[in-house]
User: Fold this.
Amino acid sequence: MTDPDLVIRSADLSDIKYIMALEQGSIVHPWESKAIESLIVDKNKKCYVADLHGEVVGYVGAEIVLDECNIGNIVTHKDYRGRGFANEILTILLNILKRNGIAKVFLEVEHDNVPALSLYEKHGFVRYGQRRDYYGPGKDAVLMTKEL
Ligand SMILES: CC(C)(COP(=O)(O)OP(=O)(O)OC[C@H]1O[C@@H](n2cnc3c(N)ncnc32)[C@H](O)[C@@H]1OP(=O)(O)O)[C@@H](O)C(=O)NCCC(=O)NCCS
Assistant:
């Protein structure tokens, strides 16, 4: 069960340093601060953080084009994985997107990222293709989508 003290809220500019730390601790090619700032300030982008007692323990970033959305990344801090936090973040994001009239969501995930593939499948995402060497030699991307 998710921690009752976990709050999912819109990110603001003061969260950039925490989001960067999450990226650097988890992602091979972490986003730079300008890209994260754009997630927070651009009207067609969404960025939510998981806040536990004032600590940013997870985040999701997504971009909207017309009635479609692309999820760029979702990360839970290494020390807080397996506690349902990504589940909570994704549930809230998908609900907000649906309320905002988004019809379809897309994302890419590395072919051997078992936790992420499982998370997305659990939320009803289906595989519709694969991009060879997308993340580097031998590192294919699985393309996934979900209708809201
Ligand atoms: C993928 C990630 C966000 C999951 O975060 P998390 O907070 O640990 O996930 P949750 O505890 O909410 O688990 C939700 C679901 O994810 C899947 N999952 C999470 N950890 C898993 C693991 N180690 N092995 C298999 N499935 C796993 C399961 O389907 C799980 O549902 P369940 O608890 O009913 O089995 C986290 O592992 C992470 O930050 N990874 C590094 C960044 C990354 O790869 N992001 C995805 C980029 S596309």
